[in-house]
Specification:
- By secondary structure, the chain is mainly alpha-helical.
- The chain has one domain.
- Helix content is about 90%, strand content about 0%.
- The chain is built from three helices and no strands.
- Helix 1 packs across helix 3.
- The longest helix is centred in the middle third of the chain and has 95 residues.
- The chain is rod-shaped, with a radius of gyration of 43 Å.
Length: about 150
C-alpha cells in the first residue's frame, strides 16, 4: 500500500468515526431535548398544582364579586324604578294643580320617556292609572291649543 492509499484509508476511517460521532451527538441531543421537555412539563405541572389553591381562591373571589355586582345592579334598578315611579306620581299631582298653560310639551315628552323607561325596567302597572290621567290632560291641552 502506498503512502497515498494509507493516508486515504486514515481519512476514510476518520470520516467514519466522525460520522458515527455525529450520529451519536444527534441521538444524545434528541435525548437531552426530550429530557428537558419532560422536566419543563413536570415543572409546569408542579407549579399548577402549587398554585391551584390560590387560583381557586381567586376564582371564588371573582365569583363573589360577580354576585355582589349583580346585587348592586339589581338594587340600582330597583332604585331607578322607585325614582321614576315617584316622579310620575309627582308629575301627575303637578298637572292636577298647575294651570294647563304652564305645562310645556317638553315636560310631557320627559314624563312619557320616563314612563317607557319605568315599564322597561319592570315597573308595575299601578302607575298606569296615573299615566292614563296624564295622557288625558296632555290630549286636552293639545286640543285646547288647536282650538285656540
Amino acid at each position: 500500500m502506498t503512502a497515498f492509499q494509507t493516508v486515504l484509508a486514515i481519512i476514510v476511517s476518520i470520516i467514519t468515526i466522525i460520522s458515527s460521532l455525529a450520529g451519536l451527538v444527534i441521538y444524545l441531543n434528541k435525548k437531552v431535548e426530550a429530557r428537558i421537555n419532560d422536566l419543563r412539563n413536570n415543572i409546569k405541572k408542579d407549579i399548577q398544582e402549587d398554585l391551584r389553591p390560590e387560583i381557586q381562591e381567586v376564582n371564588k373571589s371573582v365569583q363573589n364579586l360577580k354576585e355582589d355586582m349583580n346585587e348592586i345592579i339589581e338594587l340600582r334598578k330597583n332604585d331607578e324604578v322607585d325614582r321614576l315611579k315617584d316622579y310620575i306620581l309627582l308629575f301627575s299631582a303637578f298637572v292636577k294643580v298647575v294651570p294647563r298653560d304652564k305645562v310645556s310639551d317638553h315636560l310631557f315628552a320627559n314624563i312619557f320617556a320616563d314612563y317607557a323607561k319605568y315599564n322597561n325596567l319592570g315597573g308595575n302597572s299601578y302607575i298606569d292609572e296615573e299615566m292614563k290621567y296624564v295622557k288625558k290632560i296632555y290630549r286636552e291641552i293639545k286640543e285646547e291649543k288647536r282650538n285656540g
